[in-house]
Amino acid sequence: MSTKSGILSIDQGTTSTRAIVFALDGTKIASAQKEFTQFYPYNGWVEHDPEEIWKTTVETCKSALHQAQEKGVRVVGIGITNQRETTLVWNRETGKPIYNAIVWQDRRTAAFCNSIKEQEELVAGKTGLLLDPYFSASKIKWLLDEIDGARELANQGKLAFGTVDSFLIWRLTGGISHVTDMTNASRTNLFNIHTLCWDEALLSLFDIPSSVLPKVLESADDFGHTKASLFGRAIPIAGVAGDQQAALFGQCCFSQGDLKSTYGTGCFALLNTGSKALQSKHKLLTTIGYTINGQTTYALEGSIFTAGANIQWLRDGIGVITEAKESQTLAESLDYDHGVFLVPGFAGLGAPHWDPEARASLYGMTRDTSQAHFARAALEAVCYQTYDLQQAMASDGISSSKVLVDGGMVANDWLCQFLSDILQVEIERPENMETTAIGAAYLAGLQLGLYKDLSDIALHKKIEKRFTPSIDKDVRQKLLTKWQKAVDSTLAFSRD
Length: 496
Known about the structure:
single chain, Nucleotidyltransferase, domain 5, 36% helix
């Protein structure tokens, strides 16, 4: 049996770890997935067990590699994509974490962030980010301050910080490589996205010694080799990107103005802004999309806190549906003028509002309001929120003529069509929905010379379906006006 080359992608997410082997044309060869435990020790705290993350990573990789081998595919490189701002600190000598991983959703450092609010402009100017517990810096400070002996060890150079990619690389290489990539570094609140260096002023603001920080590499780079004892041989780790940036790359958004929107539990929209780091006037985040061959491509990012979570609420919270696909059937049963609007502030509202105190609100109910109204309003809300992001991006200077979508929600044809109607642009849904994992694989393949350049990668992109606008313009405007009224009312309620 002839042996073909493949790339192993480690997709380490918030609720599970996945390992997928891709052929060079992007075809999925093998995959394995394991969920792991979510810990909520106190209100607003979210943690993961680093050892469980490591265990699920090794187990899924071994399974996927075995499956690939049985199919005559030899893995020649590894790409890693990961939940981004989640923070780990471990002992350099023992390799053991000093505490659980503090997850990106964790809010325990809100009081500290509020206490230095006067520094928000400084932080935003250097990092493109808001001063918020979401990002890694305040989490590192908490670990150094609150864990017995941690700060002393850090000052002695004995501790290492990393986002999940960095921790996995450390373990995979047997402690040889303490590295991260530009995209993950850009989500810490410590990395200057203009100078492409850890920033001394920010390290001072958060009281973090530079000795704990990993070396920052490009997204396609030499991150080291796995220990031979792990998988039977040493395999090069050649591509790394945070999950949303990996999806941007996997969608082949290589040109300025290319926009991808991922609809999972939340929604993350990233707009390629080219070589310019645009400073948003509408609370969008400026971030590094990817860095390759000395060239950095920037992006604007808008976050919607709940997308698929709206559908989970319909199913698990109020029992309107028993499985997600029912939402499409219910939505299709109503006309545009059904009159019910959901503002899904279940966890506050993200961009362009960034109001953590906002709460979910439902408007327009009558005695005739039914399960179908709830389902349709929940789906429509995702599209209206994407419209708000699109408008903010356009106001910041770059518009898009189409949106490339991925994530579990976009299997819903009705949602994709309504999204196209509201945004008034073409929606493209790819044939390969594993855009995050394939993005990491493409980066690794680029570094290993398996792809000549970005245009070579783009040849493998296949579109499964396109959706184009078909709504009456007056109807659309009426819907958007009512949506804005609903949002304004929700925000007013949260301020009282």
